[in-house]
Design a protein that fits this description.
alpha+beta, Lipocalin, two-stranded antiparallel sheet
Length: 156
């Protein structure tokens, strides 16, 4: 009986931990990335403000740094005619499908480095992740239809 209780306890402790796929993804995402391209799944001209911060033109070429051991990061906008500088955030990876390795992110801006979170967050889908490339997708509603914003990163 004791062995059965210990076995059940061990299984419950293991099941509460982060999955291996999430741990591997956190290892891959660690480091510096460049947001190279932002595209839309539908043709047209869109005046989008991404992450309630800046335009597509300002985000393209931005540098992103991820620190997965404390789920924080910073992105830096350097574009001309943009409000340049560092923006801090915290992120959470939520497993969607362990077989494909695809996840949803919850990215929440913070006021300063490691300071309090703002009351807004942005749900993004991790559509692809390799050692040197990453693809995010965000679905938004535009005039009653769904628009998918694709963001392509490369590792520095």
């Amino acid at each position: 009986m004791k062995k059965l209780i210990l076995l059940c306890l061990a299984i419950s402790l293991v099941s509460c931990g982060t999955s291996k796929t999430v741990r591997v993804s956190k290892k891959v995402i660690k480091g510096d990335w460049v947001l190279n391209s932002i595209t839309y799944n539908q043709a047209g001209t869109y005046n989008a403000t991404l992450l309630n911060d800046a335009s597509k033109a300002c985000f393209e070429g931005s540098i992103w740094q991820f620190v997965p051991n404390n789920n924080t990061g910073v992105y830096t906008i350097n574009g001309t005619n943009c409000a340049t500088g560092e923006r801090y955030f915290v992120f959470t990876i939520q497993e969607v499908d362990a077989e494909t390795g695809l996840y949803d992110f919850l990215l929440k801006p913070t006021n300063e480095k490691h300071k309090s979170e703002t009351n807004q967050g942005f749900r993004l889908k991790l559509a692809a992740l390799s050692d040197n490339a990453m693809q995010w997708q965000q679905t938004v509603n535009v005039n009653g239809s769904t628009l998918t914003i694709n963001m392509g990163f490369s590792k520095q």
